[in-house]
Amino acid sequence: MEYASIPLLPESGEGGGGIRARVRAFSLVLYNVPMNMEPYTTFLSQRLTPARYQHSLGVMQVMEALAPLYGLDPDSAPLAGLAHDAAKELPLEQMLAIAQEIRTPLDHPSDREPLFLHGPCSAYVARFEMGIEDPLVLEAIARHTYLGDGRPRSTAFCWCLRLADMLEPGRDWHVLRQRVQPLVFDRRLGEAAHEMMEWLLPFLVEHGIPTHPAQYELQRKLTLLFAGKTTPIPDDQIPV
Length: 240
Ligand SMILES: [Fe+2]
Ligand SMILES: [Fe+2]
Fold this sequence. Notes:
Elements: E1 3-5, H1 18-22, E2 32-34, H2 38-47, H3 50-70, H4 76-83, H5 92-101, H6 114-128, H7 135-143, H8 155-167, H9 174-185, H10 189-206, H11 213-226
Antiparallel strand pairs: 1-2
The chain binds fe (ii) ion (2 copies).
One fe (ii) ion (FE2) binds at residues 84-85, 88, 118, 144-145, 165.
């Protein structure tokens, strides 16, 4: 595979808040990007802050590593990682307009939070501005923020993206990494998903970050299956 070196970017200089504030300055991380990703990296480097763009490269890298473990397409998996936050920095009004256009339900107050809304909106940007048509990629991007009804086409793809989002090298969430990374790379996806949710919800509450009812419902289902035990169910039956 041919690679292009992506130059290091300066820090955004923004104090930021929420998750963005915890995306480290990636001054020591240099990612190799496959040449076929270049149109997408060009787009994203112009649309995202440097910190968010570097985060996206990190998620791409983890997805590349997870693809062979979970039988994901070696091109689709990193592409989903790269594009997963494509709409993260759009103004809220624009996200709400996209949500209405694609009929994302806006019933619960949390549905209107950018933290959750940006998943479906990023899938929209990936589809209509980046020209990405792979339904697995678009689905995983849309659902990485816990929104979406019905059974996904690929549970493994969706969970790999959520976990890659949490484990990319720029995050400094050491406790999460210690608890979850060995499970993910040991192909224990359901247990990894459960551990991640057990960590995530208290973390969001502790930091005053909004949660979504869908997250609690998901945690409840995962707890039934995986709390203190290894339930041998196929990856495509893990609740999403
Ligand atoms: Fe995201
Ligand atoms: Fe992300």
